[in-house]
Amino acid sequence: MHRFYRPIVCDYFAHAGIMVNGPRPFDLQVRDNRAYTRMACGGTLGFGESIVDGSAEAQDMIELVRRVLTADTRDAFMPIEVIMDLKEKIDFRNIQARAKKIAGHYDLPTALYENKLGSEMSYTCALWEDGASNLAEAQTDKKRLIGEKLRLNRKSRRQLRVLDIGCGWGSLAKFLAGEYGVVVVGINISPGQLKTARERCANTPNVTLEELNFVNLPSKFDDGYFDAIVSVGMFEHVRVENYKIYFEIARRMLEPKQGIFLLHSIAGVKAAHNEGFHEKYIFPGGQLPPPGSVELASFKHFLTWDTHEFGLDYAKTLHAWRDNFNAWWDSISPYERRTLFGNSFPQFWGNCSPEERVLRFYRLWNYYLSMDEAVFLARHAMLKQWLMTTPQYEGEPIGEKIRHVRHLSKTYEPLV
């Protein structure tokens, strides 16, 4: 069968200036002919699985993916990519069930994230455009910008209360409480992540972290309880069919006359779907908000004062994460790798030896980070911050003037 699909795959990549088994770093090397069938019939999922099991590889995967994304391949025939289109109703049961699948990604060994993400433990785009020289500085600049946009240094008769929806390992909650003296409530659905977050925030006053799905917020807090709401890197898991209830709940939680809401999310540039490889291995049930979907779902509840896009900064962040991951991987012993990842993805790799699972995890993680970096470099995804208030807002104007340095039209030099 691969003899039939080989010319199809070669022609497809040729339209992107890529040779199969060619001499350049970004050319695709096919090690097992069965990969041709998998790539032709499985699209991005088949391609990714061929990389993960070693059937195919490329020295410069970032450039390979970037070329495919930016090439005009409309004249090249390739069977349509398999996309897991989850047709789900808008009800609480599906939101809760999907939360369990999402949590699995964040419950991978904490050592992986500690070493990949660095000291800040922020699993979201950093802000490089203000001149940061390293990842830690860039993440701090991002968090400080969020605090400024939310006007957390404003005068108030009492301590301001901030809700962090999807608080991760507590990095933002810890920073905002320490930097601005505010009370922060963070919610999370990942038990493993929440355990680490509580440990990291144990010595920071005024931080409370709870295992709670956002749909249950009204059962815990009165309407208008929070002076500011922030959600960073969580909205990608909500899905379009649940946007209405998400914004309804956020509106209920926010103090109407002075409250400010900041939403930070990767944004799609086309119709909503979750790319096949990400759906199966990385963020099951995730979905990038398609163009205009946030504005359409939020306009009945919020006024949008400012939209800030800095997707190229995410490419640089992903590059730093990949460097960190590979440096850490090289520093640990085969025994440690087997202990941490020898049982990875048993639902998919059940017949593989622990050593093979370790190798597959290494390839998978590098491919995931390389592919996503290429996606942002090719501008096939954006990173946006929406700054919103209720229509009843009576506070000072917010938005553009808070951002001190803007380089929205910049391009980065190639990353090395």
Keywords:
single chain; 416 residues; alpha/beta; Rossmann fold; seven-stranded mixed sheet; two-stranded antiparallel ribbon; 15 helices; 9 strands; 44% helix; 12% strand; globular; disordered C terminus
Reconstruct the topology from this structure.
Blueprint: H1 2-14, E1 29-30, H2 34-52, E2 56-57, H3 61-70, H4 92-106, H5 110-117, H6 135-149, E3 161-165, H7 171-180, E4 183-188, H8 191-200, E5 207-211, E6 228-232, H9 243-253, E7 260-268, H10 276-282, H11 293-298, E8 303-309, H12 311-331, H13 334-341, H14 346-349, H15 354-377, E9 381-389
Report on this model:
The protein is α/β, with parallel strands linked by helices. It folds into 2 domains: 82 residues, no CATH class; 248 residues, 3-Layer(aba) Sandwich (Rossmann fold), CATH 3.40.50. The chain has 15 helices and 9 strands. The strands form 2 sheets. A 7-stranded mixed beta sheet has the order 5-4-3-6-7-9-8. A two-stranded antiparallel ribbon has the order 1-2. The longest helix has 24 residues. It is globular and about 70 Å long. The protein starts with a helix and ends in a 27-residue tail after the last strand. The C terminus is likely disordered.
